[in-house]
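Retro notes (design track)

What went well: tokenization of the new backbones is finally stable.
What didn't: we kept losing track of which sequence belonged to which structure.
Fix going forward: every design gets posted as structure first, then sequence, in one message. First example under the new rule, 213 residues:
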């Protein structure tokens, strides 16, 4: 199964991606996570990407497209994959169509997760992440068992640099301008399904499973 998770920053793409990955046994590929790893390791790509990420702007298409071309060819993708955060522009969607064609693959579904803007701001400013294993929490909605400590690996949780209110507002603007056109792009393919992203994490996962079967 090849799946795209589409939606504004903070709608729960990463949270649901992890659950879908476990349930269906296919990897979740998060462009944000790949980029943050590059930033942490201070690679050339990471240094370039950080300038855009810190402001909530998109990393240039050519960088992202090259990165994804390589990633989907890796061994763990042979039974499918879940894309979280890609494509994010029409140019990326067109490049992804080409990648599918070249590798003889077919996109199955695009899940558009929908959450009102006020709730998004609350979700992102309250998000805490584990810098070691990548687990995602929320101070109110999905807190760790021990204050500020990762349940899975015991590391101290941090707030992402781009989760401040000012940067979140810019990320939402960038989403509207650059990524929302993809809703029309994928509606035309007949593969897009809208998922109500308000409710508990389990409720939303239930809605997704109903669609995926
Ligand atoms: P990226 O990491 O992809 O960020 P994003 O799209 O802004 O998405 P988020 O990770 O912020 O949100 P999410 O939808 O995954 O929500 P989550 O599950 O964590 O990208 C970061 C940056 O990298 C970009 O700004 C850009 O610079 C660059 N980049 C990445 N991809 C790119 C591309 N293709 N092209 C160019 N540049 C690119 O949930 C959010 C919070 O809500 C959490 O705290 C969670 O616990 C909580 N939560 C989840 N579900 C619920 C629920 N049902 N109820 C209440 N709270 C919930």
């Amino acid at each position: 199964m090849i799946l795209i998770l589409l939606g504004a920053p903070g709608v729960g793409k990463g949270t649901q991606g992890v659950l879908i990955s476990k349930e269906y046994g296919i990897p979740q590929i998060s462009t944000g996570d790949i980029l943050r790893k590059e930033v942490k390791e201070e690679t050339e790509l990471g240094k370039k990407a950080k300038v855009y990420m810190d402001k909530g702007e998109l990393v240039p298409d050519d960088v992202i497209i090259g990165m994804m071309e390589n990633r989907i060819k890796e061994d763990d993708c042979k039974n499918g994959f879940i894309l979280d955060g890609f494509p994010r522009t029409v140019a990326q969607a067109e490049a992804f169509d080409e990648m599918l064609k070249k590798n003889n693959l077919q996109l199955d579904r695009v899940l558009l997760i929908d959450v009102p803007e006020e709730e998004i701001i609350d979700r992102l400013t309250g998000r805490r992440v584990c810098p070691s294993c990548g687990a995602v929490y929320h101070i109110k909605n999905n807190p760790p068992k021990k204050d500020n400590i990762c349940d899975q690996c015991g590391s101290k949780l941090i707030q992402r640099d781009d989760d401040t209110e000012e940067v979140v507002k810019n990320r939402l603007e960038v989403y509207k301008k650059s990524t929302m056109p993809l809703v029309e792009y994928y509606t035309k393919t007949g593969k897009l399904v809208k998922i109500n992203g308000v409710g508990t994490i389990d409720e939303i996962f239930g809605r997704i499973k109903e669609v995926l079967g």
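Added context from the reviewer: The domain at 2-116+166-212 is CATH 3.40.50.300 (Rossmann fold).
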